């Protein structure tokens, strides 16, 4: 009977030690992951701004071509391309300010 009590006490001690170690490593891992993810926001924001600039240039060329050919829905095309550029810029800014 005494051996069983010692085994139970030993098992409880080992499990509590493992639990304490696992909690410490989990917190450190979550903190490291958070820092890693937040470090990607600046480059990602710059990338989205660059994509917005390229979309704006492509949209400008498309609108110019439609305007030059006398297409009647030039304003609709211009509004859609301009809206896409504004969406990219606002989305990048809002996401950055929301998560950082």
UniProtKB/TrEMBL annotation:
Signal peptide start and end residues: 1-22
Transmembrane portions of the chain: 46-65, 77-99
InterPro entries according to UniProt: DUF4134 (IPR025408)
Protein name per its UniProtKB record: Conjugative transposon protein TraE
Taxonomic source organism: Flavobacterium frigoris (strain PS1)
Chloroplast is among the record's keywords: no
UniProt keyword Transmembrane helix present: yes
Keyword terms of this UniProt record: Membrane, Signal, Transmembrane, Transmembrane helix
């Amino acid at each position: 009977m005494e051996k069983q009590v010692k085994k139970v006490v030993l098992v409880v001690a080992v499990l509590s030690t493992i639990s304490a170690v696992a909690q410490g490593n989990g917190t450190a891992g979550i903190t490291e992951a958070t820092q890693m993810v937040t470090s990607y926001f600046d480059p990602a924001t710059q990338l989205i701004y660059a994509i917005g600039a390229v979309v704006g240039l492509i949209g400008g060329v498309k609108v110019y071509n439609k305007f030059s050919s006398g297409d009647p829905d030039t304003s609709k095309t211009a509004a859609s391309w301009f809206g896409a550029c504004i969406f990219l810029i606002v989305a990048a800014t809002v996401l950055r300010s929301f998560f950082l």
